[in-house]
Amino acid sequence: MIKNQNFAPLLLLIVYVVMMFHPKPVFSQKSISELRMTGATLIVKDLKVSAGWYRKFLQFSIEEYRPNQHVKMRNDEFHLTLRQGSGTLLKSQIRFKEGKKYINGIDKIGFKTNRFDSLHLYLAHYEQKLFKDTYTDPNLSIESFIAIDPDGNKIQFFNQPNNSQLYEIDPCYFTIQSSDYINTLKWYTTQMGFEEIEIVDDTNLHFQNYLTKDGIILELIHLPYESVETTEFMPLERDLAQIEQVSFKIGTAKTKAFVMDNNGNKVVYMK
């Protein structure tokens, strides 16, 4: 019979080896000198409903509420502005022109959280719809799921546990859909310093790619020709419920380097 004390050194060795060869996390800690995702603006159909959703499930606090105008919210250093649309149209209500199926623009934002399983259960308990249930992307090697907010926006959550007793969410992800894939890829690499991640699953190679910068992931989706800008189908004096803007910052400077990407998306970059 082998004594228990003989197992201790072996167990310690196994743990040490596993830690040595554990892959480096995609979302690493960022210092103030690195790129940070600092905010987003959403056009919403109902300010109270949308603000309630982000307050309840993501624990955003309300900093300013102006009825029928906007709600400014905050979680740590991330600022969320919900703007009341005019005669707001949901994406699910769009009637595409013949041959058109997709929309260019900011399609998704994402957060890593240390309460991944609890949040998933919490959303399920309140019967909140998921766009995609828990899965692990072979290119990012991290568990995630995609929720849907009251306006149909896709909000992705990534599992990053830690020892904190607090519920934490950290902005780390955004998705751009573009029918001008090559120029968009070039724009984000040259203007913001993003670098491509080597694709593991080449079945997605021709329509999806990942780029990274200081722990922030950009999912770039190449739309086919059958895609439209929102101005092609939106009636005058109506807004589309959508993610209208994402903001980024490097260091402590307050100078805006630009406010739009090559597709006309509102991507505010401070440096």
Automatic annotation (TrEMBL):
InterPro entries (UniProt xref): Glyas_Bleomycin-R_OHBP_Dase, VOC_core
Protein name: VOC domain-containing protein
Start and end residues of each VOC domain: 36-160
Domain of life: Bacteria
